[in-house]
Amino acid sequence: MKEFERINRGFNQVFKAGNLSIGLVVPIENYEKHPIPDMSSHLGRAQLADQLGFSALWVRDIPFHLPSFGDAGQTFDPFTYLGFLSGQTQDIALGIGSIALPLRHPLHVAKSAATIDQLSEGRLIMGVASGDRFEEYPGMGIDYESRGERFRKAFSYIRKLQEDFPVLTNNPFGELDGRMTALPKPKGHKIPMLVTGFSRQSLDWNAEHGDGWMYYPRNFGQQLYTIKKWRGLVQEFVEYEKPFMQPLYIDLVEDQDSKPIPIHLGFRIGSKYLIEYLEVLREMGVNHVGLNLRFNARDIDSTLQELAEKVLPIFNKDEKQTAKA
Description:
With 325 residues, this protein is of the alpha/beta class. The protein has one domain: Luciferase-like domain (TIM Barrel, Alpha-Beta Barrel). The chain is 37% helix and 17% strand.
C-alpha cells in the first residue's frame, strides 16, 4: 500500500494510509433549533477533545450570517479562532473546512495559514473551496460566475508564496517579480490544502493539485465509486497516495445497540452501529471522518466521553499499529 506524502505534524497524524481517524466539527454543541451556536463552552470542549484523543478540530469559513442558509458555523473568523486554539491545545490537528478562496486575497490566506502552522508546531490542515453561497459574492463586490477561475488562481498564488522570492505572472490577484517574499513560511514544506467537493474544477485538476479531497457523505456504493475514481486519478500525477475525508452528522443515543436512523447528512445511532459504519468507511478508503454534533440530543460532554471510550480505541489502535510498522 502506498503511503501519503508527509507534510506537517497535523496532516501526518490525521492521515495514514489504510486507516481512518476521527475528528470533530466545531462548534461542539447542539444548536439544532437555532442557526447561531452559543459557543460558551467552546474552549473547554476543544481542550477535552484534545485530551481524549480526537485527531482534529474542524472550523468553518462563513463570512456572512445568511439566515436562509440555516447555519452560522462557529461564528468566529477561522484564522483568528485557530490562532487562539493553537495556544490552548497540545496535540490535536487544527483544520479548516473550508476557506472560500475566491472571497479572500491569497496573500492574507497564505500568511494567516503559515502563522497558525508555526504557532501550533505544524498542526494546521487547510481545506479550500470555491464557495457556494451566492449572496456573499455581491456583498463583497466579487463576480459569482468567476469563482472557479478565482479559485485556481488563488490556489496557485498560495503555492507560489511558499517559495522564497517567487515569480508569478498573469494572475488577477497580483504579479510577483522575485524581489519580495512572504513570511512566515509553513512549518513543513507547504501548507496542506485539501480541495472541498469539486470547487468548480475537474476531478483531474483536484487530483493533481490538491493534497487530499474533502467530499460529502454518500451511500456506500456512491462513495466507493467516488474514492476509486479519485485514487485512480491521483496515481496519474504522483507516486504517493492522497487522503480522502468526509463529515458525518451524528446523534449518539445512550442505547449502544440502537440501529441507525437517517438524519441530515448522518444518523441517529448507537455506538455499536457507529463503529460498524466507520469500519465500512475505512475499508472503502475513507481516511478521516469529522463528526458533527449539531443535532446531538444528549449532553455533549458525556457524548465525547463515550466516543472516546468506545469508538476512538478501535481506530486509534490501528493508527498505533501503522506507526510501528
